[in-house]
Design a protein that fits this description.
2-thiour_desulf; 2 domains; 321 residues; single chain; DUF1722; Rossmann fold; UCP037004; 5-stranded mixed sheet; alpha/beta
């Protein structure tokens, strides 16, 4: 892998066919607006596992089939199995990988799909099928259980895209804490992410706070591993609007007593409008941030909830899928 990467940007492994090369089985390339927009903000490592194991462009399609209880990568036109080659490539790739922060993979691909990939219950064309993950994607999810791993199609949905970006940049910042080998940096990370964590998962937020406090003075390596586990659990699912409103209310509590009754009513109405999906989260965040700046709450100004990822990447468009 190339080391020519910007250390100030997260590194994302992306399927090469998503706008980088005409390497699909039929020689096509798939354009992704989201991937295109990310190019200035991340280091991309492109992969095409099927080409890497020696399948050409164009090539006869491969599919996942079950045989004797095992999932195989099978090419119907030639009758060949490529399971061993794919597993070896994936194993070698991840053993040599360094500083990966997320994945954007081609959906429904027998190598790269993370879910909804057809797995045929036999080699015959008429075989029934079930759904699962592609072989390369399975290795990715096993090696990086905490990181954001998504398909390009799902990222046209606003909520999934927001979650992916928030998780990507949070774990990128966390990687820097791991590299620092410093409890002081972990305490600062947790303090800066307090309200973002609260918005995602209140239970895990409390657990993470106790881990970061480290009252038992355990070694950094033990603490950081435990913190990473629970950080992964905190970001395992998309957050609910109720959870975000709870975080908003906590922030609001810092200055609510200084507001007029009309100002209070307006802010609380914005919370309700957000809860009812009538306004975007950024409207509420910008309103709260205005008051935080006005009343000069430095602790709150440092919170990552205001911009968990670069503002240039904010896109409230939604495919509805």
């Amino acid at each position: 892998m190339s080391d020519l990467r910007d250390e100030n940007k997260p590194t994302v492994v992306v399927s090469r066919c998503l706008g980088f090369s005409k390497c699909r089985y039929n020689g096509d390339v798939i354009e992704s607006d989201f991937v295109q927009g990310l190019k200035e903000h991340v280091n991309f490592i492109t992969v095409c596992p099927e080409v890497e194991i020696g399948l050409g462009i164009p090539r006869d399609p491969v599919r996942l089939v079950t045989e004797q209880g095992k999932i195989e990568l099978y090419q119907p036109a030639t009758g060949k199995l490529y399971t061993q080659e794919m597993n070896q490539y994936a194993s070698d790739f991840f053993e040599s990988a360094d500083r990966i922060n997320g994945f954007i993979l081609k959906g429904r691909s027998p190598s790269c799909g993370i879910k909804d990939v057809k797995i045929y219950l036999g080699k015959e064309k008429s075989s029934a099928s079930m759904k699962g993950a592609g072989l390369f994607a399975s290795h990715a999810m096993k090696h990086y259980p905490y990181l954001p791993i998504e398909e390009e199609g799902r990222l046209t949905n606003y909520a999934i895209r927001e979650h992916f970006l928030t998780k990507l940049y949070t774990f990128f910042r966390f990687q820097k804490v791991k590299d620092s080998n410093s409890m002081k940096e972990l305490v600062k990370f947790h303090a800066d992410h307090k309200y973002l964590l609260l918005a995602y998962n209140q239970t895990e937020s409390r657990i993470l706070g106790k881990i970061a406090a480290n009252h038992e003075k355990k070694p950094f390596k033990e603490i950081i591993e435990k913190y990473e586990l629970h950080l992964g659990l905190a970001f395992a699912k998309l957050p609910s609007r109720n959870n975000y409103v709870n975080a908003f209310l906590h922030i609001f509590g810092y200055f609510s007593d200084t507001l007029t009754s009309k100002e209070k009513a307006f802010v609380l109405d914005r919370f309700q409008k957000y809860k009812e999906e009538k306004i975007h989260m950024s409207v509420v965040l910008n309103l709260l941030r205005t008051y935080v700046i006005k009343y000069d709450h430095d602790y709150l100004l440092d919170q990552t909830i205001w911009a968990a990822y670069p503002e240039e990447l904010l896109d409230i468009g939604d495919s509805g899928k």
